[in-house]
Amino acid sequence: QVQLVESGGDLVQPGGTLTLSCAASGSIPSISAMGWYRQAPGKQRDLVATIPSGGTTYYADSVKGRFTIARDNAKNMLYLQMNSLKPEDTAVYYCHAEALDLGVKYHYWGQGTQVTVSS
Question: In the chain, which residues have pLDDT < 70?
Answer without folding.
Answer: none
